[in-house]
Amino acid sequence: MSAPSIRHGQASDLDAISRIYDHYVATTHVTFDLEPPGAERRRAWFEQFSTAGRFQLYVASGGGEVLGFACSTPFKERAAYDISVETTVYLDPDAVARGLGQRLMATLVEALERAGVHRAYAGVALPNDASEALHGKLGFRRVGVLSEVGRKFDRYWDVAWYEKRLGAS
Ligand SMILES: CC(C)(COP(=O)(O)OP(=O)(O)OC[C@H]1O[C@@H](n2cnc3c(N)ncnc32)[C@H](O)[C@@H]1OP(=O)(O)O)[C@@H](O)C(=O)NCCC(=O)NCCS
């Protein structure tokens, strides 16, 4: 089988994206959603993306299936934060640890550079060795840990924030 390709996400990918994400909502602490977002919220989420701006969605696709996705979304609403984005990446559990997360995120980071984004941030709920390794590999720097900032499955979770400086900065 040929290597998975990386391309912009399309509306027709949303069911597969939801299937991947909802698995992590139900079974892990790596996302702090407690319930699957549902089709309507997922469609509204998709509306924010473009193929050249600050908010972009990429998918990895192989054998006709979506194997994972990475995206950038607003970091915070207030206008001075417009130069920063938050990034996220999720793979199908059967597609992890093969370099796909790194390819998806590297593609997203290059796109953010082109779009003139100044900083990208990723929040990693701990523990998550794979995500910490991935972000470190891509030049994200761990800038702090929020202790017990989330509660899921009847316990508190810490979140490490990772920062990527883009452009000439
Ligand atoms: C986190 C995730 C996106 C990483 O993508 P991936 O394709 O599995 O990781 P890659 O194969 O690209 O590996 C990237 C680097 O991390 C390292 N790595 C991968 N999994 C690891 C693990 N479990 N422990 C330690 N290091 C790990 C790899 O060795 C690689 O470094 P190297 O090139 O020096 O060998 C993926 O595992 C995933 O979707 N996990 C579940 C969802 C999730 O946690 N998303 C992130 C939320 S913050």
Task: Supply the key terms.
seven-stranded mixed sheet, 169 residues, 7 strands, alpha+beta, binds coenzyme A, single chain, Aminopeptidase
How many individual β-strands? 7
Uncertain segments of ≥5 residues (pLDDT<50)? Answer: none
Number of helices: 4
> Largest beta sheet, briefly?
7 strands, mixed
The pLDDT mean sits at 97
Give the overall form. globular
Order of helices and strands: EHHEEEHEHEE
Q: What does it look like?
A:
There is one protein chain. The chain is an alpha+beta fold. The chain has a single domain, classed as Gcn5-related N-acetyltransferase (GNAT) (Aminopeptidase), CATH 3.40.630.30. Helices cover 28% and strands 34% of the residues. It has helices at residues 14-27, 38-47, 100-114, 129-137, and strands spanning 5-8, 57-62, 65-74, 84-91, 119-125, 141-152, 155-165. The protein has a seven-stranded mixed beta sheet, with helices on both faces. Strand 6 and strand 7 form a beta hairpin. The mean pLDDT is 97. It binds coenzyme A. Coenzyme A binds next to strand 4, helix 3 and helix 4.
Summed up:
This protein has helices at residues 14-27, 38-47, 100-114, 129-137; strands at residues 5-8, 57-62, 65-74, 84-91, 119-125, 141-152, 155-165. It is an alpha+beta fold. It has one domain (5-165): 3-Layer(aba) Sandwich (Aminopeptidase), CATH 3.40.630.30.
Describe the secondary structure blueprint for this structure.
Elements: E1 5-8, H1 14-27, H2 38-47, E2 57-62, E3 65-74, E4 84-91, H3 100-114, E5 119-125, H4 129-137, E6 141-152, E7 155-165
Parallel strand pairs: 4-5
Antiparallel strand pairs: 1-2, 2-3, 3-4, 5-7, 6-7
